[in-house]
Amino acid sequence: MGSELRIAARRERRRIAWRSTCLQAVWNYESLQAIGFAWALLPGLERLYPDRGRRAERLASYLAPFNANPYLATIGIGVALRLEQEVARGSAGAAQRLSRLLKTIRSPLGALGDDLIWGAWRPALGALAAAVALATGSTVAAAAFLVAYNVVAQGIRWRGLRAGYASGAGIARVLQDPFWTRATAVFRWAGAWVAGTLIGIGAWGVVSGDPSLVAVILFVAAFLWLAGLIQRAGLRRLSPSSAFLVAIVLLSLAYRVLAEGGS
Amino acid sequence: MSPEVLPVIAFGAVVFLDDWPLLQSMLSRPIVVGPIVGATLGEPAAGVVWGGVFEAVYLGTLPVGLAHVPQAGLAALIGTWMAITTASEGLVAGGLVMTLAVAAGAIGARLDRWHRRLNGRTAARVQAAVETGHPVVLGRSILLAIVRAGAVGAVATAAMLLCGGAVAEVLAATAWMGWLPDDWVVVAAGAALAVNATRMFVVGRRYSLAWVGGIGVALLTAGFVGL
Asked: E strands along chain B, which residues?
């Protein structure tokens, strides 16, 4: 049975990788990603366990709570596929080892992915794309964002499955690989660079001395100060976007009052 | 409602699906949603700019762990639609757009939580079925959840566009309410983007050299180009 899985691995891997895009379809507060995880794994289990009863028994073991970054969860799926072969061969204690390993790696799969993708890659790329969009009004910013983001994120999803399957119980080596921290650092450097560039452009606008621009800059400074004040003034549950909104509404009213007062 | 709203409602379903249930290709990010809605209304450039505004606002909302964040895509969809349609009627829309968009994002977050609780009931039924030897239920539950998420997204988008339009009409008639010009909102968004990005990547981290480098290069380039 193990050799069958290896021979057909590529076809199974493709099916499993596509199914992993639905990993969070039935995300819920009780089992988290478990339903999607089990469904993604099912093609491998079908090949390993022709007996439906045994297959259902193994499938049920994957309905325990599991949560990871959605792009790195395929590493866990690959690990499960690889170790499930030992379970299918009847190795003593293999099922318990697999269950323990999945519980152990779900936190690092979440933390690494959240740091890399949510905390670095997406915001760095989003900041750059937003800056280009605001400045130029070109649709290229959105298209480039979509392509660049998915090259990395979906690439991790697809390659992660292969890496998990190849590593099996030795997955700790993959998770400890300096690639993760280095890639995160590179993306954060890029994000810091973009932030600095935006500050520089804004500072140039002030320095260049355009009077209407000075008025706008003063307005922006007032707005940012007000938004920060609102957040700090005991309204800690207020999200940054809500603070932005409250600030802009208050300044709108002030603008209107001043405009009416001036006319 | 105008006929252009139908593809936007369909796109609302896609945005809701892409946010977390399916694929997560970032089609649901404001920077992508804005141009698509703008193109539907024949104003792609305006859509791009408003997409940039909402991307700036929601840059720091990260779906880390079990955190619940506003639905940035839905906010951008409603906001961009309102910005372009109300501006075309001559209404100065900046603050109004932000109000409706942020409200839409907050409502979207609540819908998210409700949808996840509904998924919990589905998951319980699936677990019971698998344990009694009926694994085919797994695939059906995935399909049901995807269809349900798409339907929720479409209905939510339609309802918010309807309500947003009604609110815009009421507020337009309210003489004492003034709203910021669109371009001031854009500049504010640019500033918010700079501050958000600085807070995320520089404060408390060791990347200040890149930040200073970015400032320096921007100043030199702007001076050289003569902006």
From this structure: none
Q: Where are the alpha helices (DSSP H) in chain A?
A: 2-7, 9-20, 34-48, 52-61, 73-89, 94-113, 122-136, 140-167, 171-175, 179-207, 211-232, 240-262
Q: What dihedral do alpha carbons A67, A69, A72, A75 form, nearest 10°?
A: -10
User: Count of CB atoms within 10 A of residue A37's CB?
Assistant: 29
Chain B residues touching A249 at Cβ < 8 A: 95, 98-99
Q: Write down how long chain A is.
A: 263
Query: Measured between alpha carbons, how far is residue A93 from residues A51, A53, A65, A96, B158 in Å?
Result: 21, 20, 21, 5, 54
Between these two residues, A44 and A214, which has the higher pLDDT value? A44
A65 touches chain B (CB under 8 A): no
Please choose, from the candidates B138, B127, B134, B125, the residue with its C-alpha nearest in 3D space to the C-alpha of residue A60: B127
Residue A41 burial by CB count (10 A; 0-12/13-18/19+): exposed, middle or buried? buried
Contact A220 B187 (CB under 8 A): yes
Average pLDDT, chain B: 81
User: What is the distance between the alpha carbons of residues A15 and A240, in angstroms, rounded to a whole number?
Assistant: 40
pLDDT classification of A258: cutoffs 50, 70, 90: low
Q: Which secondary structure element, helix H or strand E, spans residue B75, and what is its range?
A: helix B72-88
pLDDT at B191 over 80: no
How crowded is residue A212: how many other Cβ atoms within 10 Å of its Cβ? 7
Work out the widest C-alpha separation in chain B, in whole angstroms.
Answer: 73
From chain B, the residues in CB contact with A42 under 8 A are: 135, 138-139
Tokens 């909402």 appear where?
B54
What is the rounded CA–CA span in Å between residue B115 and residue B119? 6
Whole-prediction pTM: 0.83
pLDDT the model gives residue B165: 82
Counting Cβ atoms within 10 Å, is residue B29 exposed (0-12), middle (13-18) or buried (19+)?
A: buried
Residues B163/B155, Cβ–Cβ less than 8 Å: no
**Run of H or E including B72:** helix B72-88
ipTM of the prediction: 0.85
Residue A232, Cβ density class (10 Å: 0-12 exposed, 13-18 middle, ≥19 buried):
exposed
**Is residue A3 pLDDT above 50, yes or no?**
no
Considering only CA atoms, which of A188, A77, A36, A105 is closest in space to residue B20?
A36
At B177, give phi and psi (nearest 5°).
-85, 125
**Of B55, B202, B227, Cβ closest to residue A126:** B55
